Amino acid sequence: MLGIPKHDPVHALVPHTLEEPIMGAEAGPLGGRSFMVKDLFAIAGRKTGNGNPEFYAAAPPAKATAPAVAALLDAGASLTGITICDEFFYSVLGTNAHYGQPVNPRAGRYVTGGSSCGSAAAVAAQMCDFALGSDTGGSIRVPASFCGLYGLRPTHGRVDMNGVTPMAPSFDTVGVLAADAELFRTVSRLLLQGDGRETPIERLILATDIVSECEASVDQLVWRTLDALAPALPDVQHAEIAGETIVSWRAAFATIQGFEIQSTLLPFVRDNNVELGPGIKERFEIAAGISPEDAEDARRVRQTVAAHLKSILQPGTAIVLPTTPTQPPERNIPDGASFAEYRTRTLQNTCMAGLAGLPQISVPVGEAAGCPAGLSFIGWEGGDEALLDFAVGLSDLI
């Protein structure tokens, strides 16, 4: 019988995790499976913490369970834990000044990535079969890459966000982390709102400008992987996707994200004089200073980026790029000034799907410099199912 894990060897769970599992329906496609969720999903009768103990203390118990969680319970899966996330989700590192830092089961010296860090650690450590996280600027894709997992950031709006704490609503998505490709597809399809009829992927565009900016170990892994998979891949073309403008794309993403936080998370932080951890505190201060004019300028950049990417990504086409440009940082890196370059470089790889509202999957493809690494595929709007099918096909070859 499923139960709450008696041990947490990778420090994946928050102190206020479940005392007993919430059992799924007796019959369903996910019967007998277990899952955990990031500390931002509403669960009836329980508080949500958002990675911050002051928020948890002040929060009222939820009146209803988030539809994404309820759908999994209705499908037969049982909820067995609540996982640590970066404080208020404002990081891609995978650490929390209040709750600690989950351990990367696949590379113990290195971070898991974040902000869905505990969810990734729990799946990689086989504490559960799959986990839910959120992805605003890479919070599923980055830990999927660093922990050797499959991760989905869906088309914006395709997975129900009700009962999920908002961060930057025009970017926020709910997605899945799993170690098994077939299960990854099954769970993700269940959450997606659509009939699943999709054009298969027939053309790949390798983002050579993004690849060229990666660390040597990541660059080499991309070329080795594509070479090894060449006989089974559709037509692969090489092209620059953003060029030097990627810097302005990343800046536009960060500006819009920060401006939207002024209406979601900042009011609680400000009204309650919350003691934020290092790095998170500084980013909230920057967000507070973003003007409406700054945000409007960034939105114009966003419109240009979205139009550009959607013109490229017609049904049947996907962009290929490394999920992250670097291997995971070592665990002792502080979430402060020395972390800024890593975060900036990472956002330049992850901002595209968010700006255009497009689906992206990260597929584990091996190791770069001894650490797990992922290859990402960005699809067309609504092309989530095609990406999931493609991931399953690749899993037989990698």
UniProtKB/TrEMBL annotation:
Gene3D superfamilies attached to this UniProt entry: Amidase signature (AS) domain
Pfam families in alphabetical order: Amidase (PF01425)
InterPro entries attached to this UniProt entry: Amidase_dom, AS_sf
Domain Amidase positions: 24-195, 276-388
Name recorded for this polypeptide: Amidase domain-containing protein
